[in-house]
Write a structure and sequence with these properties.
alpha+beta; Ribosomal Protein L30, Chain: A; 4 helices; hydrolase; protease
Length: 91
């Protein structure tokens, strides 16, 4: 194993450990597409296209991971989604 391969392996392992939480958004029968899209753009800093794609996945698949990262960074974002009336949790 060369030095270059060993360093790359260590970097990949560190990234996987650091970002092990996700905010999952769930479908509901209450919120409009526009509200979900606007909220994802405001809270999760999604582009319009990202927010629209997530809203469609939530609608048709029932849920979608909308953000990944460390728990301490995701917690306030998940709280804002909940405050906006969306159904979400950190897993």
């Amino acid at each position: 194993m060369s030095t270059k391969e060993k360093v790359l392996e260590e970097v990949l392992t560190e990234e996987q450990v650091g970002n092990n939480n996700e905010i999952v958004l769930y479908n509901d029968d209450v919120n409009t597409f526009d509200h979900v899209i606007e909220t994802l753009m405001r809270v999760c800093k999604h582009t319009a296209e990202q927010a629209e794609q997530c809203s469609l996945l939530v609608h048709y698949k029932g849920k979608c991971t909308v953000k990944t990262g460390e728990y301490k960074e995701l917690r306030p974002q998940c709280s804002q989604l909940l405050d906006a009336g969306l159904s979400a949790e950190i897993i």
